[in-house]
């Protein structure tokens, strides 16, 4: 979809009423919409208030419709979720964790994506599996797309991929297929309900992930991605498993490092930061998850 088409689509959405948006989304039936309109007219209420009054809408439904009117899309909760609930930003961008993700996105926009000599790619790195790296990468990608940034999330963890599970994509072609020259742009999937968000899953697990990531094809793929998208978020393998994360971060230009409270080993984390610096990829910030406080579960700390 071209930028002009996307902008026209957004304008058309903003012009539509809340009722039309909810009917099109399948949240409200045409019959119930008519009932709401009758109550709205007879009692002098707003459409959403009338829908809640007669029990056919919830406050969450109203927030969802308003988000589309104001070009801040997120997914409605329901029985058939197109994205895993772990991707909190896709369903509850204004909740506590959603607020933290949005605050982190704003910091990254200021410190990296909108800084002088603007870059469009960023690697998310951590020392070990289970540190929350893939979870954070997925939520950040959604958050960037929600503010109108054309965003590509690349799952470069060819050893233990997760993004195809989080976004419920078929485990078919992906980054490994592109690197092997087996497919072209058909490996990229656009996520329904989150305009501007695309995911390049890891693809079939290769026997030689480090060698595959070291091919010249990776340069071409990332260059094309950065030329096409406003933000490219790269989910990398755990640092302790090999040099894969260093290869990806060197191409991206910088890293956001993730550590888990009471889990990540300080020595290994320090070694990772040093190794990234050695390959010319600075760490622009760190995120500590599962912070043992009642005020927040994650934070961004700027690294000099």
Short recap of the structure:
By secondary structure, this protein is of the alpha/beta class. It has helices at 3-15, 18-24, 30-43, 47-53, 59-69, 88-91, 96-113, 133-146, 163-166, 175-179, 209-213, 216-228, 244-252, 266-278, and strands at residues 121-126, 151-155, 189-190, 197-200, 231-235, 255-260, 283-289, 298-302. Helix 2 (18-24) packs across helix 5 (59-69), helix 3 crosses helix 4 and helix 7 packs across helix 8.
Please explain how this structure is put together.
By secondary structure, the protein is of the alpha/beta class. The chain folds into 2 domains: 3-69, no CATH class; 88-302, P-loop containing nucleotide triphosphate hydrolases (Rossmann fold, 3-Layer(aba) Sandwich), CATH 3.40.50. It is 45% helix and 13% strand. It has helices at residues 3-15, 18-24, 30-43, 47-53, 59-69, 88-91, 96-113, 133-146, 163-166, 175-179, 209-213, 216-228, 244-252, 266-278, and strands at 121-126, 151-155, 189-190, 197-200, 231-235, 255-260, 283-289, 298-302. Strands 3-4-2-5-1-6-7-8 form an 8-stranded mixed sheet, sandwiched between helices. Strand 3 and strand 4 form a beta hairpin. The model is unreliable at 1-14 and 294-304 (pLDDT under 50).
